[in-house]
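Good morning,

Attaching, inline, the backbone tokens for the sequence recovery test we're adding to the shared suite. The designed sequence is right after.
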């Protein structure tokens, strides 16, 4: 089976983890600080604050914005559940804008329609490695005095008109095992705001400014040095990782360009896609349904994934939730029935790529 995700660690990771083990100091320490400063420098963002996962990164980012009960955060319904869980954990109300079919991300036109007097935060998710259309989102935020929080869990180093993900105010990243950069579990919050960065550092450590001096009701969101040690070498070779993913995506795009009923993903003008996922759409015009398509891929030895099988609010737990406001999202409703992610990871050989292309063409009757 050609796997949809792989995890690769090299001798650099082994050596750094050993170094931490032998130092005897395994909790948050110098390696965490190093991971933060290197991440910030690599992507040209003033501050990066490490936390224990991408979900707590979102929660902490929302918490430092001091939201009040009834305040609304607008996001996309086509995301991983963590985005919604974080909004609810922070005590805010979640509302939803529709998405665009060309980048799978929040549609700024729909976003504009969903802004109310209670809206405080616009929360675009940069899905699959490509950023949302940030210019109109930024214009909306400025015109209406709103904050932007980017969920960039899947988009380390992605760019929009030369600007990196996480540089529009507050951004969060995941370092979970399947992400482009991983520490097993881990997360980062980026910001250009000195005050917010300082607040985040205090918040993640029980609200403690210095030993037993508490400044706010905080939490333990800390990452460990053992985990940070895993992430540092991956940052150093991240450019290579991304170019391998781009190479794979280019091959797949070329090989699948003319397959009937299948729409291949695109890197839109002005955007730098980091190809966390390579997600095709199996449309109603295809010869087989999306679910049969996925079964046949498995039979042919090709791993695939459906990210995500339902819109995030489309579960009883959320449909009944008093702080989840569901609205009409026709594009997202359609897209969620069509997506299939194919392997694009750095371990793929040329032969693997040919095999993936051949399998898709066979199933679709191309
Ligand atoms: C992975 C992911 C998260 C959560 O990150 P964890 O590190 O798993 O907590 C949040 N949002 C999106 C879009 C993700 O893909």
């Amino acid at each position: 089976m050609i796997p949809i995700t792989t995890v690769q660690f090299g001798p650099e990771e082994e050596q750094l983890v050993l170094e931490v083990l032998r130092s005897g100091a395994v909790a948050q320490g110098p390696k965490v600080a190093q991971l933060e400063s290197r991440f910030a420098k690599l992507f040209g963002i003033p501050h990066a604050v490490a936390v224990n996962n991408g979900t707590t990164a979102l929660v902490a980012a929302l918490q430092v914005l001091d939201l009040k009960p009834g305040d609304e955060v607008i996001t996309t319904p086509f995301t991983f559940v963590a985005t919604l869980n974080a909004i609810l954990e922070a005590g805010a109300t979640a509302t939803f804008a529709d998405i665009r079919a060309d980048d799978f991300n929040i549609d700024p036109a729909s976003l504009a329609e969903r802004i109310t007097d209670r809206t405080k935060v616009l929360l675009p998710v940069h899905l699959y490695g490509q950023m949302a259309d940030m210019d109109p989102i930024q214009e909306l935020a400025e015109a209406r005095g709103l904050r932007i929080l980017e969920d960039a869990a899947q988009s380390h180093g992605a760019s929009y008109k030369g600007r990196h993900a996480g540089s529009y105010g507050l951004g969060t990243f995941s370092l979970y095992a399947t992400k482009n950069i991983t520490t097993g579990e881990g997360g980062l919050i980026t910001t250009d705001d000195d005050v917010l960065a300082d607040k985040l550092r205090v918040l993640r450590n029980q609200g403690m400014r210095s030993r037993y001096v508490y400044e706010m009701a905080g939490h333990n969101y800390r990452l460990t040095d053992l985990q940070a040690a895993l992430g540092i070498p991956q940052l150093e070779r991240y450019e290579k990782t991304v170019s391998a993913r781009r190479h794979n995506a280019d091959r797949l795009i070329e090989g699948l360009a003319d397959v009937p009923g299948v729409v291949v993903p695109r890197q839109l003008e002005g955007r730098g896609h980091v190809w966390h996922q390579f997600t095709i759409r199996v449309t109603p015009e295809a010869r087989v349904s999306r679910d049969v398509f996925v079964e046949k891929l498995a039979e042919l030895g090709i791993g695939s994934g459906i990210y995500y099988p339902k819109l995030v609010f489309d579960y009883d737990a959320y449909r009944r939730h008093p702080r989840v406001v569901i609205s009409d999202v026709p594009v997202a409703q359609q897209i969620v029935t069509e997506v299939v992610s194919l392997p694009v990871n750095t371990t793929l050989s040329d032969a693997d790529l040919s095999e993936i292309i051949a399998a898709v063409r066979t199933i679709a009757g191309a």
